[in-house]
Design brief:
Ribosomal Protein S5, domain 2; Alpha-Beta Plaits; seven-stranded mixed β-sheet; four-stranded antiparallel β-sheet; 10 helices
């Protein structure tokens, strides 16, 4: 069997206002896995990381993603995946997306790259469906595969746009050691929203896209506001309102929940600012007796790749 090692980056979904349609890849944290492909049939997944994962292959998000790819490929292959390093599930920074993205990118590479990025996103979405209660969304898997900041303009058909990344776009992400599952995060969302709320949200999405295109980080910062999901989800995160107030007072251009949480991200225009904000946000959780990891990062233009 031929084997390669893959890195798949962590991601921040939604970017505040872009529920299910926007996401970005971040540097410095992600999954590392060895992917092997050879003659035969079947899928074997081994977990050599220090993170507990489902023992059953059928319960792993990689399984439907890899099967979808092989079905489209039309030939039987034996696939073996060994997870060496894993984002903690339920962290809010795209743990399942990194798994699915890394798996399909690795298998595609070993098959001679028969599929392009958008098709790989479609395959990886099958894994997201497994943990999202059947919901097909690409706001994590698209940036995990394609890198950078993405906008999913539509799902039928899948229409993904890679947006410009300002040179001074940095983020500070804090992951408190509590768990919010994707199903929990989706379960509290309102099924209907007032027209005025929708108008506010549309304005923020437009402002965010415009800020990225113009390289205007102040506009990006004030557009990561969310009047739909954030009010419904913030109770999962201890002291969220105070955390947001402290981060903004410390220089954050904008603050919001990463995906369904519990991770929180801040938008900033320098690495120095990202480091300072990480310390502020980590101190918030430490004061509450909650351990937390922090990730100061420049927005990554690279998605899952061979390393």
């Amino acid at each position: 069997m031929e084997m390669i090692r893959i890195f798949a980056p962590a991601t921040v979904a939604n970017l505040g206002c872009g529920f299910d349609i926007m996401g970005m890849a971040i540097d410095g944290v992600g999954d590392v896995m060895e992917v092997s492909v050879g003659e035969g049939t079947g899928l074997a997944i081994k977990n050599s990381s220090d993170v507990a994962l489902p023992d059953d292959v059928e319960g792993n998000v990689m399984t439907p993603a890899v099967r979808a790819l092989l079905s489209a490929y039309g030939q039987n292959k034996r696939v073996e995946i060994n997870i060496l390093k894993k984002i903690r599930p339920g962290s809010g920074i795209g743990s399942s997306a990194a798994s699915s993205a890394g798996a399909v990118v690795g298998v595609n590479e070993l098959l001679g790259r028969p599929f392009g990025a958008v098709r790989l996103v479609e395959f990886a979405m099958e894994g997201e469906s497994l943990i999202g209660g059947g919901a097909h969304h690409a706001d994590n898997v698209a940036p995990a595969i394609m890198g950078g900041v993405v906008l999913i303009r539509g799902y039928s058909p899948l229409d993904i746009i890679q947006l410009p990344i300002p040179d001074n776009f940095y983020t500070a992400v804090v992951h408190p050691h509590i768990t919010v599952t994707t199903c929990e995060g989706r379960g509290v969302l309102p099924r209907e929203i007032p027209l005025q709320t929708a108008i506010t949200q549309w304005g923020n999405v437009g402002g965010l896209v415009g800020g990225l295109a113009l390289g205007d980080m102040a506009l990006v910062g004030r557009s990561v506001r969310d009047v739909v999901a954030e009010p419904a989800r913030k109770h999962f995160i201890p002291g969220y309102d105070e955390l947001k107030h402290r981060a903004l007072a410390a220089g954050a251009l904008g603050v919001n929940i990463a995906g369904s949480g519990p991770a929180v991200f801040a938008v900033v225009d320098s690495m120095e600012g990202a480091n300072e904000l990480c310390e502020v946000m980590k101190a918030h959780f430490m004061a509450l007796g909650i351990e937390a990891d922090v990730y100061p990062s420049k927005i990554s233009g690279q998605g899952a790749r061979v390393v």
